[in-house]
Amino acid sequence: MDEQLQATPICGRHRALQALMAPFGGWDMPIQYEGIIAEHNWCRTQASLFDICHMGEFIFQGDFEADGLEDVFTFSVNTIPVGRSRYGFLLNEQGGIIDDLIVFRLAADKVMIVVNAATAPKDFAAIQGRLQGGEFTDITAATGKLDLQGPLSRYVMVEVFGEEVATIPYFKFITINILGVEAIVSRTGYTGELGYEIFIPSEKVCELWDLLLQDERVKPAGLGARDVLRLEVGYSLYGSDIDEETTPLEAGLEGFINFDKSFIGKDALLRLKEKGVSRKKVAFEVTGRRSPRHHYDICSGGKIIGNVTSGVFSPILGRGIGIGFINPELTATGTPLTINHERVTMEATVCELPFFKGGSVRA
Amino acid sequence: MSMYFTKEHEWVKVEGNVGTMGISDHAAHELGDITFVELPKIGATVKQFGVLGSIESVKAASDIFAPVSGKVTKINDALDLAPEAVNEGAEDAGWMAQVEIADESELKNLMTQAQYDDYLKTL
User: Fold this and answer.
1) Is B63 in Cβ contact with A313 (below 8 Å)?
2) pTM of the predicted model, to two decimals?
3) Which of A88, A113, A151, A312 sits CB 3.0–4.6 Å from A75 for a disulfide?
4) How confident is the model over A297-345, as pLDDT tens digits?
5) What is the pLDDT of residues A165-199, one digit of tens each?
6) What are the residue boundaries of the structural domains of chain A, listed by start?
């Protein structure tokens, strides 16, 4: 095994459960326990527990305007009410995506920024380089994160955390005392189901993991199932669907950009808007059970017009689904495409996101 | 009746001149949840170690190679709708194709069950 891999506090429990482990974003992570499809089905119908301790968390405390935080992201931090969170991007000067992230407004002068694992060091450096003051800290190592996701997650959360949790609306969070420490419970997730992200001091995260798993409605799920779940609802995966070479305009994520404020990358995006994008995100469904995969060619009229960035067999739809980037003129719903890779060829049709529309995320 | 295996984890069960083939339990376990099996056409001729079909799981897509040469006489088309049968019994109900064995001497290029079990220990 790569010696540089980091391990989450829960790693020993994954091994005891005989999880298949693999490197992800520099961390040794569980890919599956009993099987990706079984774990996927459980999350769509019950409640699944994910070890997400690998993700990065930063704290900023200061004056958002005077210290420069307000110009760091594609959305306004100032206008997030305390107790709410907002999704958006950290861009480079060219408008390329350094990371996609969520900012939690903890207090009038304090936020928590939650970022992807693989990008955490470069995110921290980029944000720090843009700040003119305030206090900016990386609390990743001290912070454990568990996601409980699935239509039954609310019942489980209420039993463990109390009634307060029952009424948290989507993209809101509360702080709550549990196991003698303070935890943040947020109504967010990456599965398209009703669910919660829990941030707790890392020395208590194993205890919380065990406590949640005591409920027979809860089973652990790995990153394999998480990837299928997120793709079925059309969420982007950083490093596959979006990266520093891709702007939110190409990725169909313009809704997370506030052009009424200043931010790094804004000029580049405005120029690109004017000129028009040369490639655009497209979602497609395959005829049959074959799975499109990252890097497969997307073709039309015998020509390669782009490539697949995410693809999988959707257990809930019973067919292959995928996301890719192609010539914008061929992205209209219903457009036929062919997906090719070596001996493999599959017919596909452009469709709208999400692929799976029956999730309980807003229940 | 005897079973033979390839290094690529396919098996063939030989009964007279009929060879039934598929992937090993080990291979099915490694692939994880199998979601699609591409089978050869009846009447097609396959060559030893040439492509027989392909198999996809949530994790990966791989070619399946024929353990022996021959003409395909039967395929397990139940796998079209229920490829998970390969996970449930790769060396049994999850068989993929049956061929008329063209050349029995090719079996010497394969491993016996005992040799294959030893081979797995080296991986």
Assistant:
1) no
2) 0.94
3) A88
4) 999 999 999 999 999 999 999 999 999 999 999 999 999 999 999 999 9
5) 999 999 999 999 999 999 999 999 999 999 999 99
6) 6-53+141-232, 56-138, 278-351
Residue with the two structure tokens 């990706």? A36
- Phi (first) and psi of residue A236, to 5 degrees: -75, 145
The answer to whether the Cβ–Cβ distance between A36 and B54 falls below 8 Å is no
Q: ipTM score here?
A: 0.87
Indicate whether A1 pLDDT > 50.
no
> Measuring CA to CA, which residue among B38, B33, B24, B25 is closest to residue B59?
B33
Q: What 3-state class would DSSP assign to A41?
A: helix
Minimal CA separation from B17 to chain A, in Å:
30
Q: Are strands A195-201 and A181-186 parallel, antiparallel or unpaired?
A: antiparallel
Chain B residues touching chain A at CB-CB below 8 Å: 32-33, 35-36, 38, 51, 54, 56, 58-59, 61, 63, 83
Task: Write down all domains in chain B, each with its CATH number in brackets.
Answer: 2-101 (2.40.50.100)
For every residue of A122-184, DSSP letters joined together read HHHHHHHHH--SSEEEE-TTTEEEEEEESTTHHHHHHHHH-GGGGGPPTTBEEEEEETTEEEE
- pLDDT for the residue numbered B1: 65
- How many Cβ atoms are within 10 Å of A314's Cβ, its own excluded? 23
DSSP state of A278: S
Look up the CATH number of domain A6-53+141-232.
3.30.1360.120
